Amino acid sequence: MIEPEILYEDEDVLAVNKPTGLIVHPSLSCQGGRYGAGPDRQSVSEWFAKKYPESKNVGEPVRLSSGQAIERPGIVHRIDRETSGVLLLAKTSKGHAVLKKQFQNREIEKIYHAFVYGLVKDDRGKINLPIGRSSKDFRKRIVTSPQPLPFVRGGERGRGLFREALTYFEVLKRDEKDKVTFLEAKPKTGRTHQIRVHFLALHHPVVCDNLYAPNRPALLGFNRLALHARSLTFKDVFGEVHQITAEYPEDFQKALKTIGFKP
Questions:
Q1: Model-level pTM?
Q2: CATH number of the domain at 5-259, out of 3.90.1300.10, 1.10.357.140, 3.30.2350.10, 3.40.50.300?
Q3: Would you say residue 112 has pLDDT above 60?
Q4: Residues labelled catalytic
């Protein structure tokens, strides 16, 4: 098992750099469009429970449609299996409550870096398109126009329901040769596959996204989703602000060198 790298730690909160290929918790039966992320797969929650056995009961279990309850030690939020980068975990119930409230109130700033197909025209902008489940493929999410819409602010239960989703972005580098754009995305909401679905809606899907762009070439040497959770800013239980940054993994470093971008 490739273990996460610890980026920050105090008595209540842990921040790690999750490697690509590692699921967050085993209740996600399919992440990134590939099957096999079932209860027997290695996960961040499994690693966390072994490393911090005193915290194994921290977190909220999720109940599957089969009725099975899956424990999620330490888990407060999640990122896709193929996505690398910053992930927060809670070591105590107090830490879990503090982080959960910040996520619910959208007080945590999340910054992702991604390579997308094509040359994005605008240097910066926002994507305000509600997201819901696809009725054709249970793995996928789809967007709809802001008005009118079958809209709920609350839970994403049931197909045909859409939740508000807002993503800000800024282009960092356009590569004319490979026709790709390297950009920064700041999702203000935390919908499943939000960045992937929003840029697909702009006709610029994320490079090597086997779920949403299965017929596109794997550019710049990527063999996984070209998405990295670059940084995350949060407050600890005492109200102190922390900005945690995850270094680029090797495939990102090589791709950035190829397009001539210096971080």
A1: 0.88
A2: 3.30.2350.10
A3: yes
A4: 80
